[in-house]
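Revision sheet: structure tokens.
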Amino acid sequence: MNSVRLPLPRWSSFLALLIAFVLLQFSLGTRVVPTFTWLFPVFMMAWVRSTKPGWGLLLCWVSSILAVAIIILPFAFMWGGPLITWMIAGIVGSLLLLPFAVDRLIRHRLSGILSTLVFPLTWVTVEYLSSFNPFMSTAFVLALTQFDFALMTQISSVTGIWGISFLVVWLAPVVCLALERRFEWSRVARPVSLFLVVFIAVLCFGGIELGLDRPTSPTVRVAGVTASSRDGTLESGVSLLNTYIPQAAAAGARIVMLHEGAIFIAAEDESALIRAGQELARQEGVYLLLGLQVEDEDRSLPYENKTVFIAPDGELLSEYLKQRLVPGEIAYYIRGEGPAPVLETPHGNIAVLICSDTFFPDLVRRQVGRNGADILLIPAWDFQGVEYFWPYGTAFRAIENGFAMFRVARESLTIAVDYQGRPLVLSNYFLTDQSIIYADLSTEGRETVYSLLGDWFAWLSIAGLVLLVVMALAKRKSERKQLVTPDQRETI
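Predicted:
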């Protein structure tokens, strides 16, 4: 049986907590250092395991809440104000606590490899179940921090992002077990070896995918427009279209898309604006994706955040309303019900989602991945501070489902990736004066295990955690029976 507490001096334990607090601020949110994501759980677990459960878990909880609050308070306007922001910090901090609590309370009743699996299985379970929240879903999942680690990200085409989170946090219990057993190889060989074998296997899989399954299909040039018309007049909206659509077509674009809510328009002028778009699409021979924010003051919810997709012959192919609203939009915007359009074109099957829709892996898989999309177009509008995290995070959807992705964003990073997550275009709105960004996207996607089977790894993790809890409880019951003397048994 493992010892209950990690043998660390008190000053070392507090130092581990302080380091974990600092590392956590760079493991989530907008200022991410990918290496710190691997190290934060190691130091926090060292603190929790080296102290009494009540004291250790309490300070783990408080420090997690404070760290998350520091990350998100600068963006309180998005969440609905400081009070709601602190509530969100409390919820996220509590979710971060849960895996450490479960690990602290039951892992000592398991041995060897099984004791190291409690923490990653709990972590994936908590991340997956919390992803069903109706707002930001996977916005705080640790796996998203590893986007630049191309050898690692390829496994998400099989396991989804959950496999990456599992591997990242598995390091912590393996290191702590080695520390508990004073790095005696004979006592830690199996768990350490298993971790290394799995880690190397994941990297080898990534290398094979990147080397042997590169996109080879013809490409189509897509133009993303990051300029906007916000004064609400029809003339201004038509002027924006007349300025940028011909320019993009002249540069060889066959598809032109505006960012999320690029044109603010009154409901009574929407039809006229769409007709102007249809006429331009015919003149320039392009597919045109309009990003509109439509206002109707007579509705209880006055706004629609929508896209309108127009064919080169002027045919109106689809209208799509944003399905997953951020907290600041709930009181004002009509929520779309889907399904997301996946349209057959000479340039492959093209799908459309809007901004935060893509924080929801299951939504993307069910409505886009399973319907054979080759290209996903994402009009978006973020804000300064998230441009090097959220756009990268949504790019995982391309790897998971096997399509190329172009996310065109105002006040953020415009990013295009192929179906292996390779960046094709990176354009920071705040660092360029260009209002049109071009990307050449493959017109053929690929089928992936994840697009077929979905979140099987997450459900397997949940089942594995339940099994380990049952085993730990059975061990506890067995230990209690052994403490009962024969005379006590006769009395009972």
